[in-house]
Each structure stands twice: as C-alpha cells, then as structure tokens.
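Weekend entry, working from home. Most of the wet-lab plans are on hold until the incubator is repaired, so I used the time to fold the two sequences that have been sitting in the queue since the last round of cloning. Logging both here for the record. First:
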Amino acid sequence: MQWAERLRNWERGNRNLFTYEKLVEQIRGSPGVAPDETGWKVGGRLWWMWAFSNDKLTVYSIQPGRGYEQASAILGPDFDGFLVRDGWAVYRRFTQRQPTKRVWRICSGAAAK
C-alpha cells in the first residue's frame, strides 16, 4: 500500500470515528434505549456484539466482554434513561434513576417489578 493510499484510509477512518462518536452521544442522550448483546466470533474467539437502539437509530459495538464495563462504554456510566431490556443482570446497574422494563414481561403484558 502506498503512502497516499494509507493517508486516505486514515482520513476515512477518522471521519467514520467522528460519525460513530456522534451516534453514541445520541444514544446516551436518548430518553429510552433497548440494549442487547449476542456472541460474535473475532479471530475464532468469543466476543460480544452489543446493539443499543432508540426510536431513530441503532449503535453496534463489538467488544471482548459482556459486562457492565462494556455496556457503559456505549451508554455511559451515568445513563439516566429508560431501558427496555432482557433479564441480563448487567442492565440492573443502570436503574438508579429510571425503572426498566424487561422485554419478556412487556410481551406478556405484565409490568416489570
């Protein structure tokens, strides 16, 4: 790869990073987010693909773990919105300010406790 091509790729990457960071900011400022994660192979090893959706967008993040540290990397540790979530225990750490709804309870019509 020639120097000029590397420079163009670097510039494209920086533009994409700026866009991604803006999307993460929108998720963090959203009044409600639906997070979820699923296994994802990276180099033959198990990583996790996280998805964070609101009514307008979805942000994906492929990370090596499935814990609070990874979720808060996108939501932010002070996320104070409403979460529509499954039963994964990590999401309970975001409930200091807003209640959350567990997806299976919403689908069954029962309110989350």
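Second, folded right after the first finished:
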Amino acid sequence: MKFLLKWRPKDDRLSGVGTIPPNGAPIDEIADTGSAIKLLGHWCEDGRGTAIVEAQDAETVYERTLAWHRYVDLDLCDFAEED
C-alpha cells in the first residue's frame, strides 16, 4: 500500500537543543527501515514535511515514526493510484 505522511511541529520543541538531531526529521526513521518501508519521495522545510511511502500496512509506518509523536503532529493516509 502507498501512504502519504505529513508532519508539522507541535510547537517550538523541534528547536530545543539536545532534544533531537539538528537535521533530524521523521523521514530519517523511515529511511533507516531497510525493506519494511520504501521511501518513494519526500519534501521537508522548516520542520514540516511530506513523504510518500510504500509499506505493507499503516501500522508499520506508525511504528517507525512513533518516537516523533512528542515533537510533531503526524498525519498518515493511504491512497490508491489511478489507472
């Protein structure tokens, strides 16, 4: 299945020194998953981002991004490609 993942900072916690890697983002968690999630594309700016990923189910994506829930609001939705 393909999913659209969007994130945005909950508040100024993303700018806190020592709380997260300075260039970190939820997409870093997805990029380190090996074959569990395939990253098809992503865009990031000012702590906000969007990614298109492919995974067997939404739970797999949520598990990989769970650590980011205290810093960002995550939205995940599945979608189907049109023929």
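Plan for Monday: verify the second prediction. Residues 8 and 48 are 4 Å apart (CA to CA).
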